Amino acid sequence: MNETACTPTGKPPHDATPDDGYGALLRDAHAAGPRRGTHLQIIERDDGFVSIEDAYRYFTRPDEWLPVERQAVALATGRVLDIGCAAGRHMLALTGDHETVGIDPSPGAVAVAREQGLDVRIGTVTQPGDVGTFDTLLMLGGNLGLLGSREQAPDVLDSLTRLARQGARLLAIGHDPHTAAPEHRTYHQRNREHGRLPGQVRMRVRYKTWTSEWFDRLLLSPDELRHLLSGTAWTLQTATRSPGTGFYLAEMTCSR
């Protein structure tokens, strides 16, 4: 699907649609002026483990980011696509002669980004719409997890290849799931017993009275990512870790 989140007047809608609670979260935070601790969503894993996410993270400035995210933005060249761009914080930080396009499946997120003057369209990593091809593909904010699962990843990587110009780079923030925390190690072992990669996370999110459908995110170590890329058009060139966080910047190149 490729469309802008606009009313017939050409202006972004004031409210996200009822099934777009994530978009409502971003609209509410943006309208109030983003501040820490004021707009929260619940992330629920399918084993009952829950955590809280602050919407402020979607509006942070570069000086509040992990160094690897600043590094990714600095490495972007040419025509740039920000996949899963949310409110557009990374696009706002891109400077120079970049032509930058963002896609996100949330109409509310698209509306917030467009209100900030960004070229953002509704789309997903596998259904990006008619956006063309790019020199740099960004999957930041942990969006390497959009690979989804071992089974979903080939379709995602094929879609990324179609979006890539010759020699394009994919800059993605991943999260290494391997930890000593028992609540996560037990989950990883259950995944192995069911034939899944240990870092495949089945989750849903909640905001106010809204609850999303269940969906998968894939957390990978750099070695697991390298193995997953085998036989595709993509090669992992470097993986730069963010000490003490589990996050890393994966820099991949396209050989097609």
Automatic annotation (TrEMBL):
GO annotation, biological process: methylation
Methyltransferase domain span: 80-167
Span of the signal peptide: none
Region (Disordered): 1-25
InterPro entries linked: Methyltransf_25, SAM-dependent_MTases_sf
Keywords: Methyltransferase, Transferase
GO molecular function term, any single one: methyltransferase activity
The protein's name in its UniProt record: Class I SAM-dependent methyltransferase
